[in-house]
Specification:
The protein is of the alpha+beta class. It contains eight helices and 19 strands. The protein has a five-stranded antiparallel beta sheet with strand order 1-2-3-8-5, covered by helices on one side. A five-stranded antiparallel beta sheet has the order 10-9-11-17-12. Helix 1 crosses helix 8 and helix 3 crosses helix 8.
Length: 367
């Protein structure tokens, strides 16, 4: 079974390869009658696109969306019809010939070997479907999901918390997009952001790469979302984040630090917040029993250093002979700044899906 579709009721299917003609996708299950801000969706792609600063890959792509289906104009606005929403994004700066030298070899820590092991062949052009270029379609789908969630009052944000060993000196919390995007690193703490940028520039000059961590916070999520036992809300969020290229670690709420505490310390006590019941602390990360409890959903996602380094590296060819690969290509020295909109998009897709599933779970009879 192919694994190119994500979601149960609110679904995204993506297609395309890194150096093919285009990327694209189909969003199915978005409710009819949703007024879309297409310029806001394009802005989401601008946050992800390559070449946006000296800290990212030098590949230049405008990533302009072409909408194919699923919406009509009404009173000067584009409105969803309930039909599948198709879209495409051209690969304007594709350079497939740059990868001809990889025909008979496997790059260290890339998906070259595993794709060939699975399919018996592979697309050597920039890694094909394994390339992070595929995520442009996720951001488009996630942008639609975000606009649906905004009608429910739900907000989703993410930011770079750590680059290698340089970390923001603040606990996880929601930050506005203006705060996050004020610096190209997408860290809302200016002093730390500057240090992060220096580190990324340093490793880029050396032809190397670094990883780090991103924090995602979703606030004003109503209590009750999640489908135990196999589709617990955090289980679906975990699948979403693990599906992103370069993800290597994931924490919800207290995460691994919670394993060092006693139960009496870790428990979130319930309190009266006037209009609702809340918790005094949020070590659960906004989810208990696989269901949202109304508090902020807080996750930390760890990303590895980008595998492509501009340094010679040892590998083997298809026959097992040792070879030396010369580092080349247009790649990010640190994936984190461009991964922020990816994390947000995947969180939005999960939450939109569970919002619709919750509507289908309970029936209200009478007036």
């Amino acid at each position: 079974m192919a694994g190119n579709t994500f979601g149960t009721l609110f679904k995204l299917t993506t297609f395309g390869e890194s150096h093919g003609q285009a990327m694209g996708g189909v969003v199915d299950g978005c409710p009819a009658g949703l007024t879309l801000d297409l310029s806001a969706i394009q802005e989401e792609l601008a946050r992800r696109r390559p070449g946006q600063s000296s800290l990212t890959t030098s590949r230049k792509e405008n990533d302009e969306l072409t909408w194919l289906s699923g919406m009509v104009e009404r009173d000067g606005h584009m409105v969803t019809t309930g039909a599948p929403m198709g879209f495409s994004v051209a690969n304007a700066a594709a350079r497939p010939a740059d990868y001809d030298h990889l025909k008979d070899t496997f790059r260290p820590s890339h998906a070259d070997f595993t794709y060939e092991a699975k399919y018996g062949l592979r697309d050597i052009r920039g890694g094909g479907r394994a390339s992070a270029r595929e995520t442009v379609s996720r951001v488009a789908g996630g942008a639609i999901a975000r606009q649906f969630l905004s009608t429910l009052g739900v907000q989703v944000g993410a930011y770079v918390e750590r680059v290698q060993d340089i970390s923001i000196p603040l606990p996880p919390s929601f930050h506005s997009r203006d705060e996050v995007d004020a610096h190209p690193v997408r860290c809302p703490h200016p002093e730390t952001a500057a240090r992060m940028a220096d580190r990324i520039a340093e490793v880029k000059k050396a032809g190397d790469t670094v990883g780090g961590a991103i924090v995602m916070v979703a606030r004003d999520v109503p209590s009750g979302w999640g489908e135990p036992v196999f589709d617990r809300l955090h289980a679906d969020l975990a699948k979403a984040m693990w599906s992103l290229p370069a993800t290597k670690a994931l924490e919800l709420g207290s995460g691994l630090s919670g394993t060092l505490m006693k139960g009496s310390e870790h428990n979130d006590k319930f309190v009266n917040r006037g209009s609702r019941i809340g918790t005094a602390t949020n070590r659960s990360g906004g989810i208990q029993g696989g269901i949202s409890n109304g508090e902020d959903i807080v996750m930390r996602i760890g990303f590895k250093p980008v595998a492509t380094v501009l340094q010679p590296g040892e590998s083997v060819d298809r026959k097992g002979n040792k070879i030396t690969l010369e580092g080349r290509g247009r790649h990010d020295p640190c994936v984190l700044p461009r991964a922020v909109p990816l994390v947000e998009a995947m969180a939005c897709l999960v939450l939109a899906d569970h919002a619709l599933r919750q509507r289908a779970t309970r029936l209200t009879f009478g007036a």
